[in-house]
Each structure stands twice: as structure tokens, then as C-alpha cells.
Amino acid sequence: MICKVIYHMDKSGDHPRMDMNTIRRDNLRALSARYPTQAEFAAACGTAPSVISQIVSPNPKRNLGDKLARRIEAAAGLPHGWMDQVQGQIAKRSVQPNASIESEGIQEWADDTPLDDDEIELPFLKEVELSAGGGKTVIEVSGTRKLRFGKYTVRNLGVQPDQAVCVSISGNSMEPVLQNGGTVAVDRAKNKVSDVVDGKMYAISHAGHVRVKQLYRTARGGLRLRSFNRDEHPDEEYTADELMAEEITIIGRVFWGASFF
After folding, report:
1. 43 in a structural domain
2. What is the domain range of residue 53?
3. How many domains does the chain have?
4. Does residue 176 carry a pLDDT above 90?
5. Whether the Cβ atoms of residue 7 and residue 101 lie closer than 8 Å to each other
6. Can you tell me the distance from the alpha carbon of 120 to that of 118, in angstroms, rounded to the nearest whole number?
7. 124 and 22 together in one domain
8. Tell me: the pLDDT tens digits for 150-163?
9. H or E stretch at 238
10. How many CB atoms lie within 10 A of CB 170?
């Protein structure tokens, strides 16, 4: 589904367009506010608290550059370029009464609609209970559910299309970043403990059930699993031996995510 929105702003200069630095700074403030402390937000983004403080302070001392913007999007499971676009409440403030909105229309497609040359379909993973397994559940690729992506968008994120799959979020452990029923895309090439970048989101298989968590490496090959909703879902920590005993394996790193709010 594609819908392009165009804003025609007042030419008088009374209502100037928001510049990129302002848009990114407002988006960063909104994301940072979702965390208990700025330090925790900085850790999730893989940067220092002082860097975030310098960007979001009332008198900012630096701007949010491209590299850090992309890193924050990846850490939060947001689409590439999300930080560069007016979001949510910010959009309501920036649209003035004299703005007009034009729609270019919606392109509809069904499951049997042929793919364009620049499109790919990513399959979904599903949990399947084995009929003779005594409640045993395994994860398989769905033969019916698929999600369309731009081929070059996926490759520009450093992901090979044949290594990408989608999974659905179940429960509220990753709120407010990802809601119950949301979807993430996963790079299966990043599926080893040694591949884990602290604070990034990963899909894991836990005894045949799909879970999405922030991962942190611990001593001697262990992992710490962290939820965004830490009030209801405290950290879980497993040694290398416990990972095997609990049947916990990494499916891959999350590189895109979306939710209905």
C-alpha cells in the first residue's frame, strides 16, 4: 500500500519547514522519553549518555548525524530513514492551517499480484506443534504469509534477501517500541552468540517459540535477554550451558519493525 502525502506550506516565511536537524532532534526526544533514564536509552543505542544529552538538551551542542540516526533506528526496530521524517505529535505541531494535503492514490495488491523488478517477498516464521511431540513446538517457514519489501532497501541495510524472514510480536514485553501483533524483519545470517551486538534486537527460538528481545553478551558465551517493558518483564540471563538446556538459539538480528498503534 503506497500513499504519498504532500504538504504545501505558506510561502511568506511565517511557517518555515522544519529542517532535518530539528526533525531528528524531536524524534530523538520522543524516543528517549520512552526509557526510564537517558542513560538506558543511550545504552540501547550503543552510544554515550553525554552524546544524547548534547543533542536533546534545550540548548543543543551538536546535531544528530546520519550514522547515529541509522544506529538508533536499527536499535529501536524502526525503518531506515524514520528519524528523518516528521512523526506522531510532531506532525500535528508542524502542519499549519494553510497546509493542504494531496493524495497520489493507493496502490493495491493481493497475494497473486506479480512482483515488480525491485520487489521481494519475505516469508514469515510460524510456530508449529508436532502432533506426536507431547506439546513440542518447532519453528517453520510459513508457506502462505509473506511481506513485500524493496529489494534494494533490504540490500542497502546489509541484508541478503534470501537470509531475511519476518516474525510477529506476541505480548507486551517490547512495548512501547513494538506493540502486540507487530511485525519485525530478521537477518538470519546474524545467528550466533558471537554475532550479537549489545543492545540490538534479535529474534530467538526458545524451545520452539519465537521471542524478540534486546540481547547482551555475558561471560563465557552466555546471553542476557532484555525487554523494553522492564517493569513487567525483568531481564533473563543464561549461561552457555543454560542456553543449550533451555533450547535457546538465535534466529537472527532484527533490521526492521512495524506496529499498529
Report:
1. yes
2. 5-103
3. 2
4. no
5. yes
6. 7
7. no
8. 877 788 888 998 89
9. strand 236-238
10. 15
